[in-house]
Amino acid sequence: MKKNKYLFLTISFVVYNIIILIVSDKYSIPLIFFLPMLLYAAFMIKSMKRSGKKNDNSSNMFPEESNETVSSTTYFEKKKTEEPKIQIGFDDVAGLEEIKDDLMDVIDFLNNEDKYKSMDAKVPRGILLYGPPGTGKTLIAKAIAGEAKATFIYSSGSEFVEKYVGVGAKRVRMIFERARKEAPSIIFIDEIDALGAKRNSESNNEKDQTLNQLLIELDGFNNTSNVIVVAATNRMDLLDEALLRPGRFDRKIYVGNPNYYSRLKILEVHTKNKPLDKKVLLKDIATKTHGFSGAQLANIANEAALKAIKDKSKKINSENFEFAIEKVAAGLEIRHSTVSEKEKRIVAYHEAGHAVAAKILNIDKVQKISIIPRDKALGYVLKFPTEDKYLYTKKELCDKVAVLLAGRASEEVFLGEVSTGASNDIKESTNIVYEIICSYGMGKNTQNTCIDERVFKYYLDSIKDEVADMIKETYERALHTIRENKQVVEKVAEYLIKNEIMNADQLDELMEDTKKKKALV
């Protein structure tokens, strides 16, 4: 199409010049002849340049790689302008004192490298932070960079995963080259399991090359590189063994959910600029939030502030925090539910069974009972341990199962039939029983034996029978507990049907009154 266009222009130009020669006089020929010729020459040169550029691209053996190289360069240049020096330090990281102490030598090395050279001491070049989500792994990495006044280069594992072979490896090289140029620096790779998953025969060739390049870069550091690699993951079990060996990620630090003292410090950090009512006791909130992550605690503080604003209050009070804990733990309250009176009655007796069994068997502290639907649950019992607990006996685990099954037991005792409302309780109780038998070695036929996936098939029939027997036995205990405390359960249920909510003090008072009446009789 374009060749025909140029041929037509050339012929037209020649014809034009012949006509000019015939009709023009000898003085006007140079002016009339050369002006169109110059315009035509300029047009042809411009067209050839455009064509040349397109031909250069089309003749490239790997056009995708060329384009990707440009995009990768601009991508990392853009990231460079977006990453100023980090202003966060260890003072901004509440709790996690042991982890901060463990990382002080890394920070000292970045600031005083010569001191370590003189002693021929080698500081870990790779630090792997692993643990559940929301526990502060990214915050710790930023705090290291802030304390060391180092350049902080953030990336996620998914940024290196590409469909074109060689692109991911090139990105790894580029980020490490930049880190060396801007040393002292910290490379932080979030969700490294996306990049460093175990290699196998079915794995992607591009992914393997990217991981190989990362392994080479980690090995390639010398004593003068002054670059630290920090990585974070929620799934350490997925990582390739080559990535975890000493010399690459030398130091592996578990970042778990905070204990009571850490929760208290985290709450203090997240409420230091918030106007709190004098009656608010952060110690009580820290006790009630057992098992919550740092991110959840920060969310609770923020939700309490939002609730105070919504209530047009000048200060955040205890009720705001109770609302926030409940929202984070149980979900969003459904105000205009379409639950029928029959279902409401079933839910009331179900939750009353859970609450009374938890009080009788002394499993956790019941904070609140509600039959107001939240998310998918039609009712719930909000309970937390009174203290941090890390070890459980077999009896305590069986008591937990009994409390979970007490809801269904209450339905059977008072309503004469069971409903589907216990599905989640059954699932959770079955998981605990399987752990008792398979993981903790507390089963009758599997005593002191860990049954994992390698030998599970050999014990399958035995485990199935023992799980069924243990569930049956525990359910009988739950039924016995409900029948023994039938009067209390009925009063709690009737109170819930009428008022929908019961707090811990009201439950204690109701149970005490029932005990006194029993004693008088």
Automatic annotation (TrEMBL):
Quote the InterPro entries the UniProt record gives. AAA+_ATPase, AAA_lid_3, ATPase_AAA_core, ATPase_AAA_CS, P-loop_NTPase, Peptidase_M41, Peptidase_M41-like
- List the GO molecular function terms: ATP binding; ATP hydrolysis activity; ATP-dependent peptidase activity; metal ion binding; metalloendopeptidase activity
Q: Which Pfam families match?
A: AAA (PF00004), AAA_lid_3 (PF17862), Peptidase_M41 (PF01434)
Q: Do the record's keywords include Phosphoprotein?
A: no
Q: An example of a Gene Ontology BP annotation on this entry?
A: cell division
What cofactors does this protein use?
Answer: Zn(2+)
Q: Which GO terms describe its cellular component?
A: cytoplasm
* AAA+ ATPase domain segment(s): 123-259
**Sorted alphabetically, which keywords does the UniProt record give?**
ATP-binding, Cell cycle, Cell division, Hydrolase, Metal-binding, Metalloprotease, Nucleotide-binding, Protease, Zinc
Q: Which domain of life is it from?
A: Bacteria
| Stored PANTHER family | ATP-DEPENDENT ZINC METALLOPROTEASE YME1L1, METALLOPROTEASE M41 FTSH
Name the family: Belongs to the AAA ATPase family.
* Name this polypeptide is given: Cell division protease FtsH
Q: Which organism is it from?
A: Sedimentibacter saalensis
